[in-house]
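Module 6 notes. Inverse folding takes a fixed backbone as the condition and produces residue identities as the prediction. Think of it as a translation problem where the source language is geometry and the target language is the twenty amino acids. Below is one complete input and output pair. Work through it position by position during the lab.
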């Protein structure tokens, strides 16, 4: 992995408006900014789906409307 050269600043008009995280076996999952890191966020960095910038701040998985938690 050679991630240190990836940009960490979103260059989109609406910054960090479309965050995803790539999870093994699940593909890209939508995530939302959060105030603290959950267990999954400790393991993965989210990124902007549009420009690919790494989101190095707390996030959480977005709730799925069709799924009972
Ligand atoms: Zn972006």
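Target side of the pair, the amino acids:
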């Amino acid at each position: 992995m050679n991630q240190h050269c990836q940009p960490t600043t979103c260059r989109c008009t609406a910054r960090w408006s479309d965050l995803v995280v790539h999870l093994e076996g699940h593909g890209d999952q939508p995530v939302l900014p959060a105030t603290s890191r959950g267990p999954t966020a400790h393991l993965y960095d989210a990124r902007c789906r549009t420009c690919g910038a790494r989101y190095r701040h707390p996030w959480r998985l977005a709730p799925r409307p069709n799924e009972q938690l």
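Reference fact for the lab report: The chain has a mean pLDDT of 87.
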